[in-house]
Specification:
homodimer; alpha/beta; Nucleotidyltransferase, domain 5; 2 domains
Chain lengths: 313, 313
C-alpha cells in the first residue's frame, strides 16, 4: 500500500478533492456538494469521508486543504468564512483527528496560486500575482519566490482595494472596492440593470432561456450587444486598473487571472493589458505578462496537493 | 587603523553620508550639495571625495548608497532618475573603481526603509510598510522579514497607484496617482490654489513671509484656517485611503510614514488612522499600527549603512 497525499478545495457550493502519489501524480479525484447549511460539524464529517474515500485504504501522509475565509494558520482555525457561515472553526485539528493524518490549511485563493505555481501557468515563475475573479476577487501573491501571507494571514485581499470611493456599495461595508466593480457578481448585477434599461438588448433574449449571470453578459457582448458591451467594458476597465495598481506596487513578471470570469479569455485579457500599458511605468509594463489560468477550477485542488506535499508552510 | 563602512543617501538637492564601525556605530557624518546639473561624472566624483573624506584614511569595507531612481541592482546601474536627470548611469561600478571598495546600491526609499528597520521605528518588526511622503511618494515594503524589490527592482512604487482616474494630472502622465493627491508637492499646489481663491485666508498672510510649501499649509490648518484645513483634510483623506489599500493588500503590522510631510505628526497620523479604520477588515485594522519615522531625514543614511553592513542583497 503506497502512501498518498490528499488535496481538498473546500468551496461554498462544491468541494473538490484528489489523491496523489508523494511525487504529486494524481491517482483519484472526486467532488461533493458542500452542505454548509448543516453546520461546520457536518461539513467536517463530509470532508473526512471524502478524504478516506480518496485514500481507499492507502496510508495518508498529509492533507492540504484550501478554505474560503480568513484563517489563523498557527492555530489551524478558520476565523471567519462568509461562504461557509463559519466563525472560529478549528478545522485543521478537528479534521486531523477524524482521519488520523496531519492537515495543512490555507486560504483557498492562496492555495489556487500555489496550484498555478506548481502545475499551471506560473510554473518556474518567482514573481507573479494570481487573481481569482469570480463571486468575489481574491489573490495569491508570490514575490521573490515566496507566497505572501502577512502576519494576520490576510495578505492578498485585493478585492477590497478601494478604487472608487463613491462607487457601488460592497458587501464589506465600503464603496467602490475592486470586487464590487469587477467580480462576476458585479458584472451580473450591472448586466441585469442594463437589461432592464434596454428592452431590445440581446441580454433579455438570452436571459429568457437561462440565468442572467456574468458568462451571459460576456456572451452578449461578444455578439455585439451594445448594452452588454458597456457593462463588460466598464467592469474590465476597473479590473485592469486594479491589476495595474498591483503591477505598480509589486512589479511582477506575470499576472494569472483565474476564477469564473477568466473563462471569457480575450474579453478579459485585452482590456487588462490595455490598462497595464496605460497605468504602469515602462520598466513594469515591459515585464508584466498577463495570462488566464491554465487549470481553471482545478487550481485549488492542485494547490492543496502542493500544500500537503510541502507538509508545512 | 580600523576598517569602516560608509553609508550615503544621494538626493536630488543634497547628499548625506556617514562612516561607521563594522558594528554600525556612526563615527563621522557629512553633507554636501548634489551638483546634479553638472552631470553624472561630477556627481560621482563628488561622491568619491565625500566617501574618502568620511573614511579619513581608514580602510573601507563597503559602501551602501541610496539612489533616487529606478535601478538595475544586478548591473549596479541607475536606469532612470528624474531627480538627478540620469539615464543608464553605471554608478556602482564607476564609484567603486574610484574609491577601490565595493559599492552596494538600492533605491533611496527602500534604503530608508532599511534604516527604519535597523535603527528606527520598525526595529524588530518583520511586516511593515515604510512610506516616504515628500516631493513624491515612494515606499519600502518588508513582508515576512524580507524587503520586496521585485524582478525589475521597482516594487514599492506606490506613489503611482491610481486612486482617482479623473483626478489631477501626475508627472508620470496619468491622473489621480496617490502622489499627485497627497505628496508635499500636491499639498503646496492645492494650498496655492486655496490662497488665491480665499484672499482672507491665513495662507496669504503666512506666504508673505516665506514660500507657500506644504509645511506652511499644515501650519495654517493647525491654526484653524478653513481654506488650509480643507486642503489638508482632502490630501490626508487620499493618503489614508492609499495606505488603507496597502494595508488591505499586505496586512502589515506597522506603517511608518517618513518624508517631509511626516513632520506634521498628528495632523497626518489621525486622518490616516481614521481611513484605515474605515477601509480595512477587522483582522487587518486591529494589527496595523501607524507611526511617523523616528529618523526623519537620517533614515536614508542609516539604511545605506545597513546595506553596506549586509554587504550584499
Amino acid at each position: 500500500m503506497k502512501t498518498v497525499i490528499i488535496g481538498i478545495d473546500l468551496g461554498g457550493t462544491n468541494t473538490q478533492g484528489a489523491a496523489a502519489t508523494l511525487d504529486g501524480v494524481i491517482i483519484r479525484q472526486s467532488k461533493i456538494a458542500t452542505r454548509a447549511r448543516l453546520g461546520s460539524d457536518t461539513v467536517i464529517e463530509d470532508l473526512a469521508k471524502l478524504i478516506l474515500d480518496l485514500a481507499k485504504g492507502q496510508p495518508i501522509k498529509a492533507v492540504g486543504l484550501g478554505v474560503p475565509g480568513l484563517l489563523d494558520l498557527n492555530a489551524g482555525n478558520c476565523r471567519f468564512s462568509c461562504n461557509l457561515g463559519w466563525q472560529d472553526v478549528p478545522i485543521a485539528g478537528d479534521l486531523s483527528r477524524r482521519i488520523d493524518a496531519p492537515v495543512y490549511i490555507d486560504n483557498d485563493v492562496r492555495a489556487a496560486a500555489l496550484g498555478e505555481w506548481s502545475r499551471g501557468r506560473a510554473q518556474g515563475c518567482n514573481d507573479f500575482i494570481y487573481l481569482s475573479v469570480g463571486t468575489g476577487i481574491g489573490s495569491g501573491i508570490v514575490i521573490d519566490g515566496r507566497l505572501l501571507r502577512g502576519p494576520g494571514w490576510s495578505a492578498g485581499e485585493v478585492g477590497h482595494m478601494v478604487l472608487d470611493p463613491l462607487g457601488p456599495a460592497c458587501a464589506c461595508g465600503n464603496r467602490g472596492c475592486l470586487e464590487t466593480l469587477a467580480s462576476a457578481t458585479a458584472i451580473a448585477r450591472e448586466g441585469r440593470a442594463a437589461a432592464a434599461a434596454n428592452p431590445s438588448s440581446l441580454l433579455n433574449e438570452l436571459a429568457a432561456e437561462q440565468d442572467l449571470d456574468s458568462a451571459l453578459v460576456f456572451r452578449a457582448a461578444a455578439r455585439g450587444d451594445a448594452a452588454a458591451g458597456q457593462v463588460v467594458d466598464t467592469a474590465m476597465a476597473w479590473l485592469g486598473q486594479g491589476i495595474a495598481n498591483l503591477v505598480t506596487i509589486f512589479n511582477p513578471s506575470l499576472v494569472v487571472i483565474g476564477g469564473g470570469v477568466s473563462l471569457a479569455g480575450e474579453q478579459v485579457l485585452a482590456p487588462v493589458r490595455a490598462q497595464i500599458a496605460r497605468y504602469t511605468m515602462p520598466v513594469q509594463r515591459e515585464m508584466a505578462q498577463v495570462a488566464v489560468s491554465a487549470l481553471a477550477d482545478r487550481a485549488g485542488v492542485a494547490g492543496a496537493l502542493e500544500l500537503a506535499r510541502r507538509e508545512r508552510f
